[in-house]
Amino acid sequence: MVLHLGRRSFLAMVGGASAIATGSALLGRTAQLRSQASTGVPAQARLRSSGGRLDLELVAQETNVAIPGGPSRALTYNGLLPGPLLEAEPGDAVRIELVNRLSRPTNLHYHGLHISPGGSADNVFVSVAPGASHSYAFTLPADHPAGTFYYHPHRHGTVADQVFGGLGGVFIVRGALDQIPEVRAAEEQVLFLKDLPGEAGSSPMGMGMMLGREGAVLTVNGQVNPALTIPSGGLLRLRIVNASNARFWRLALEDHPFHLIATDGGAIEAPVELSELLLAPGERAEVLVRGERQGGRYRLLNLPYARGAGGMMGGRGSRMGMGMGMGMGRGMGMGMGMGMGMGRGRMGSGFEQQAPVPIATLNYAGSVTPLPLPERLLPVEPLPAPVRRRRFVLNHGMAPGLGMVFLINGRAFDHGRTDTSVSLGDTEEWELVNDGVMDHPFHVHINPFQVISRNGTPEPWRAWRDVVLVRPGETVRVRTRFDDFAGRTVYHCHILDHEELGMMGTLEISA
Amino acid sequence: MNVPQPDPDHSTSGGASRSHRRGWLLATVLAGLSAVGVGYWLSPSTVRTSVARSAASTDALATSRQVTAYRTASCGCCKGWLDHLRANGFSVKDHVVADLEAVKSSLNVPGDLASCHTAKVAGFVIEGHVPAEAIDQLLRQRPAVVGIAVPGMPLGSPGMESSLRSESYTVYSFGRDGSRRTFLQIEA
Fold it and tell me: Looking at domain A1-201+208-311+331-340+348-374, which CATH architecture does it have?
């Protein structure tokens, strides 16, 4: 069992007594370092609003980290990877002083929050130069949904490198979902999923920006294979964030189904039982796990997922759901060991995409009177009929004068151009078409959306999302309403390398 | 419990399975370029020329600079690579094939080194977006290898130029037994 927070992170975790990680390794190491804690840095791993205010400083910088097999240095907030866990409530005033001690410009995006896109709120057009600071200030609407949100850099030109380098953190908004008795009774655990590059000098073959860079080291809350605990009969609520640049996480817990209770934008109407959960970059989910075994250890697995193949070799639109079923090309490695060994490539060991990789371990400890699952959660109101429909075609290609670029409706990102103009208060339906051969998770800032259909098949249940996977050959229809905030923002592919290579557009919301 | 540790040195033979899949994903990606709707590729005049060539002076040399290439019909960046070769003094026989897989198989291209096109020159196999300077070095040195390869599709490699980004990448040599080593490192 290994631990891969940097020493500073550790000290900070010790300082924040309510640190979220509960792994046994962490506790053991904490004890070991306790004597040093008193001299530790003042950073805290968990910051909660009080009296309606959340005030903090986030220092973005490169720091030493101790991650077995991983990089010796990573980009961190306040020396922490993940950055401090932020918690607020609807109506709270949030002030964040971002200090850039990186070598390149940065900024902050409050992914999933429904706040203003302008000024010093969720303004992705802000650029904070190296050595400079920026004061973010915004107020969460009084009716902001409860959920698991995600802060990360979003400065075009450096966002992919900075997220891949380690930056990001979780922003929890507590509200109605947290008051549902069965949910409230559950033990809560954040799972911040991030893959990091391997040790210096190991440069993977072939996997570059074109497909989107993945790191060889899979971390959960900055740890390799941390321990989670559950009492027999208990409920564990996992708030899961895919904080990767490009990696999709396809999760399954041995002998335990997930009971999905929330998607990106908060609660769904009733729990949905899932045997596995696929999260694209930027996507979040909350699930309940029932402690329905008597004891033992169960691996939380990341299952293989291929995000750019079947289209050409298996025929478009022929895939099955949730990461299953792909093309049949030689050695494409689809599924659990399927499709391999068909060619001459040698089967080395340890590539996570070829076989399930344990990323955390669930241990039973103690027992409680069995807790029930909630039967109902919260209403997800259907949106009214759209006043307008639009179409967004995603692909990549060679463009004159640019070379290889990624495109939305044939255009690469230009921050000075307005691609889509909408009116405040309008409901629109957007048709997202992936005309290419790679998966593209489509993300819209400021306002969440509901998926209406995928390739004409109606979505089985309503949910608020801000990221939706659009597979090659697929057409996904989403409906959204531009509520509360006028201003200028963006939509883009959340494989951040693709965003950097042009797959982003500007959205002007006019009052 | 058994915790798999990442392979610290998967850049060489140890990471074959990882790279194996990657190569194919990327090759597949490339094969789809024509579906883009912007079916452009860089004109020969804009292709990066890395090495100035002196004209081939003997028949033998002329023969050694004959490239026989295999690609799928839709591959735009394959054409870009062929233009790069022509601009560097190679002559090109361009074969559009339906089953590129069979070509790679018959030429002993390791799956994890695969890209979107395969070629032959002077008895060597050339896989992927290999720059002309690497082929020149291969023809000068004539090492005991099956060929050389640039797996996947690195941005900035010949045929994969992008004004937005370029990446460092490695040209690997490979043998009949699947062994491979770094042949040339190209920095971004």
Answer: Sandwich (2.60)
**Domain-wise residue ranges, chain B:** 17-32+59-186
CB contact under 8 A, B18 and A354: yes
Which of B7, B34, B79 is most worth mutating to test chain A (most A CB atoms within 10 A of its CB)? B7
Chain A residues with CB under 8 Å of B77 CB are 398, 404
User: Is the confidence at residue A243, as pLDDT, over 80?
Assistant: yes
pLDDT of res. A109: 98
CB atoms within 10 A of CB B107: 17
DSSP string, B3-37: -PPPPTTTTSGGGHHHHHHHHHHHHHHHHTGGGGS
The shortest C-alpha distance from B104 to chain A (Å) reads: 10
Closest-approach residue (CA) in chain A for B179:
A346
Domains A1-201+208-311+331-340+348-374 and A388-510 share a fold: yes
Q: How far apart are CA A360 and CA A376, in angstroms?
A: 29
The residue ranges of every structural domain in chain A are 1-201+208-311+331-340+348-374, 388-510
Asked if A25 reaches chain B (Cβ–Cβ under 8 Å), the answer is: no
Put simply, whether B48 touches A (Cβ < 8 Å) is no
* DSSP-assigned letters across all residues of B93-162: EEEE-S-HHHHHHHTT--GGG--S-EEEETTEEEEES--HHHHHHHHHH--SSSEEEE-S--TTSTT--B
Q: Pick from A207, A216, A327: which is nearest to B6 by CB?
A: A216
* Average pLDDT of every residue of chain A: 84
pLDDT (tens digit per residue) in A311-364: 222 222 222 222 222 222 222 222 222 222 222 222 222 233 568 999 999 999
Q: Which positions in chain A touch B11 (Cβ < 8 Å)?
A: 201-205
Neighboring chain A residues of B76 at a CB cutoff of 8 Å: 397-398
pLDDT digits (tens, 9 = 90+) for A53-92: 999 999 999 999 988 888 999 999 999 999 999 999 999 9
What pLDDT, on the 0 to 100 scale, is given for residue A44?
A: 64
Per-residue confidence at A18, pLDDT binned at 50, 70, 90? very low
Is the CB of residue B82 less than 8 Å away from at least one CB of chain A?
no
By the 8 A CB rule, do A195 and A207 touch? no
More confident residue, A398 or A238: A238
Q: Nearest CA to CA, how far is A436 from chain B (Å)?
A: 6
pLDDT at residue A12 is higher than 90? no
Respond yes or no on whether ipTM tops 0.95: no
Instruction: Look at B172 and A207 and tell me if their CB atoms are within 8 Å.
Output: no
Q: Is A435 on the interface with B (CB under 8 A)?
A: yes
**What are the DSSP calls for A366-411, one per residue?**
EE-SPPPPPS-----PPPPPPSEEEEEEEEEEEETTTEEEEEETTB
pLDDT tens sequence across A384-438:
999 999 999 999 988 888 899 999 999 999 999 999 999 999 999 999 999 998 9
Question: B111 in contact with A at a CB cutoff of 8 Å?
Answer: yes
Chain A residues with CB under 8 Å of B4 CB are 349-350, 357-358
B38 reaches A (C-beta below 8 A): yes
Tokens describing residue A93 = 């005033």
- With H, G, I as helix, E, B as strand and everything else as coil, classify residue A271: strand
Q: A498: helix, coil or strand?
A: helix
Average of per-residue pLDDT values in chain B:
76
Q: What is the third-level CATH fold of A388-510?
A: Immunoglobulin-like (2.60.40)
Give the gap in angstroms from C-alpha A52 to the nearest C-alpha of chain B.
43
